User: Fold this.
Amino acid sequence: MGLNCGIVGLPNVGKSTLFQALTQAPAEAANYPFCTIEPNIGIVEVPDHRLQKITELIKPQKKIPAVVEFVDIAGLVKGASKGEGLGNQFLGHIRQVGAICHVVRCFDDENVVHVEGGVDPQRDIETINIELCLADLETVTKRLAGLDKFLKSQDKKVSERAKIAKPILQNLAAILEEGKPARSLNLDEEELKAIADLHLITLKKVLYVCNVDEASLSDSNQYVQVVEKIAAEEGSQVIRICCQLEAEIAALSDEQERNEFMESIGLQESGLSRLVRAGFELLNLHTYFTAGEKEVRAWTFPAGSKAPECAGIIHTDFERGFIKAEIYHCEDLFEHKSETKIKEAGKVRMEGKEYLVKDGDVIHFRFNV
Assistant:
């Protein structure tokens, strides 16, 4: 699975404006459909108050935050699964991302064209979801059609894998034909492993991003309520963002100026910060830290990773020659104020190869190559 979030939605709902605000990168944004064809990719810093607190206590020469990748994918339309609006190309891009941020238009503005002629979040979400289900259904159907030769294979491993996969594929085909996403089957780890090579789009986690007008940031509007109802039924998350306002905030180069502007409109935190953190969580990513005089750095790792795997994120030699990991939690630092005091309190541990790294761990790896 890719460690990135794909920004999807109908054409002209604010995806590229959101991407520009996120990355302050020049994605093309215009008031007409299909102005984005090739996906734009941006690396975005993950807001994390812990990194700032560690930096204040360790006082390094520099600090380096964790990052998450966002991909701005061109707008999908009805018929995309059959190639409408360059649909096959766009669906291929979605297959490569780890999770989906689905931008839904939740504001009225006669000056901004809507590809379907009017604002209707339920219809818009159904349009996207049906196209994604149809694309996955085609993938599953093709696999089922070619499964017999694997079931008859002389290679026992191949035939066993095919036997395991067949009922899963049949259940997937049935649910996708109903227009329901593959994730609604709640497949277990072994079942997911059996079909992992299909890269099904509708197995990916989804975050609905309601693009609202400024007034609806504080008071939910009728369109947002529709999205929230759909998300609740799916078990997905929802956040509200005014993409145009976020673009204006991001355009301010001075941090104090940005803070003053947000304060003047009653925002304690930008919507982008909330979106980045939500995307990070959607990908099931955690953060560990390395801390020293030269730098304090946040490292991204998939939840459930063991110490050697996390060491390998820094350098493959660290994983290959892993010996031990000297670990304390950032909360220990916040409580005791220095690494010396943490050691005196007996909070520093030596962990081996089977240690599951926790979000917020501060680690010094010992290795030999």
